[in-house]
Amino acid sequence: MISKLAILVWSLAPERPELAAAPFVYAATACAMDCEVEIHFAGTAVKLLAPGVAAAIHPSAGRERSIYDFMRDAAEQGAAFYGCQMALRAHGLVDQPLIPEYSGAAGAAAFVARTLDPEWRTMVF
């Protein structure tokens, strides 16, 4: 059985919080099913790795939980968070403090390698 999942989040942005919770719900669920999970942040999604950004946005008008709450759920279940170095640079986040859940840099080649590896499944948001 496949037990490894890599999730690419690139179309998410603080400006569209209604789209931002889903990948973290899927990641937490996969972790609960004993999958190894990596979440790769690219494009504007890397902004969610900056302290305070995800905590300030909510996926619904009810504001019950922030996007950061969903991110923490995934991380607490075991998901690793990786940021694209090129995207981090483009958004001024290189050498800046990032959220504690951040695992390190991994660019396009790392995610493409996951898509080509038969032991991994991938999802893109």
Please explain how this structure is put together.
- The chain is built from four helices and five strands.
- The protein is an alpha/beta fold.
- It has a single domain, classed as Hypothetical Protein Ychn, Chain: A (3-Layer(aba) Sandwich).
List the helices and strands and how they pair.
Layout: E1 4-9, H1 22-32, E2 36-41, H2 67-77, E3 80-83, H3 85-90, E4 102-105, H4 108-116, E5 121-124
Parallel strand pairs: 1-2, 1-5, 2-3, 3-4
Name of the CATH first level: Alpha Beta
Percent strand: 15-25%
Could you estimate the helical fraction of the residues in percent? 25-40%
Rg over alpha carbons: 14 Å
Which structural class do the helices and strands define?
alpha/beta
CATH topology call:
Hypothetical Protein Ychn, Chain: A
Mean pLDDT: 96
Number of strands: 5
Q: Specify the oligomeric state.
A: single chain
User: What is the global morphology?
Assistant: globular
Query: CATH superfamily assignment?
Result: DsrEFH-like
Through-space gap between termini: 24 Å
CATH architecture term: 3-Layer(aba) Sandwich
For the biggest sheet, the summary is:
5 strands, parallel
SS field, number of helical segments: 4
The secondary-structure element order is: EHEHEHEHE
Poorly predicted spans? none
